[in-house]
Amino acid sequence: MRNLFFALMLLGHHSLAGSYDVNKPVMLQGVITKLEFRNPHSVLTLDVGSANGAVTSWRVEIGGPNAMATIGLDKTFLELGKSYSIEVCPALDGSNQAAGHKLTLADGRTFDLSDKWGMK
Questions:
Q1: Which residues, 6+ apart, have CB-to-CB distance to 35 below 8 Å?
Q2: Which of 47, 81, 82, 118 is the most buried if burial means most Cβ atoms within 10 Å?
């Protein structure tokens, strides 16, 4: 019974390549307007401005709380209303959803999120 439980858990977890285009990462720069640290994946909403002044909200999945803590990111590190640059793998369906790949801070520090998705 225990093995069946773990098999069902694995089936419920999607692969990154099944939902996101890992071969065409893009850089987004915007303001975090919402942050949900939860399992299995945390989610941040990033409002990205364009040259014409339009703002597009992106839903970006990152690792769960424990995975993020191992690289020095916790729910107190990222600030709502602050601008961040994040390289993402966009959704295959063309929606404004993505998987976070690399986070870059204004001071130049980077956080590699790719190993949390098995992208290395």
A1: 42, 43, 44, 45, 75, 78, 80
A2: 47
CATH number for region 16-116: 2.40.50.140
The CA distance from 86 to 101, in Å, is 7
Instruction: Provide the residue ranges of all domains of the chain, joining segments of one domain with +.
Output: 16-116
Q: Helix or strand or coil: residue 12? A: helix
pTM value? Answer: 0.81
**What is the sign, positive or negative, of the torsion defined by CA atoms of 94, 99, 102, 107?**
positive
Percentage of residues in the chain having pLDDT higher than 90: 51
What is the distance, to the nearest Å, from the Cα of residue 85 to the centroid of all Cα atoms in its chain? 12
12 — alpha (psi -120 to 50), left (phi > 0) or beta? alpha
